[in-house]
Design brief:
Helices cover 76% and strands 0% of the residues. With 96 residues, the protein is mainly alpha-helical.
């Protein structure tokens, strides 16, 4: 899946979310966070699903510093009122 993703000329938020989630769910949380940063560098705007996934990765690694930075982005984007994202924020702080 990764080689196909790397060959894609146009990567949208759905393709990024798929790769980030796959890495996170299979125990590669650091790689998931790296992909999140790459996504943003390529100009793709994260959505609620993206933030939910990367906050879960932070929670799994107890990465409070990264989680706080992501929380700031969520507030700036106005997604902190999204129930799923808000639950991910609470979960991340609870586990960190």
């Amino acid at each position: 899946a990764r080689s196909l993703f790397d060959k894609m000329l146009q990567k949208d938020v759905v393709s990024w979310n798929t790769m980030i989630a796959a890495h996170s769910w299979h125990g590669h949380e650091k790689k998931a966070l790296q992909l999140f940063r790459e996504m943003q560098l390529e100009g793709v705007m994260p959505d609620g699903i993206t933030f939910n996934t990367v906050l879960d990765a932070c929670a799994s690694m107890a990465a409070i510093t990264e989680g706080k930075l992501i929380h700031v982005q969520i507030v700036e984007r106005g997604l902190d009122s999204d129930v799923v994202v808000a639950n991910a924020i609470i979960n991340m702080y609870g586990k960190c």
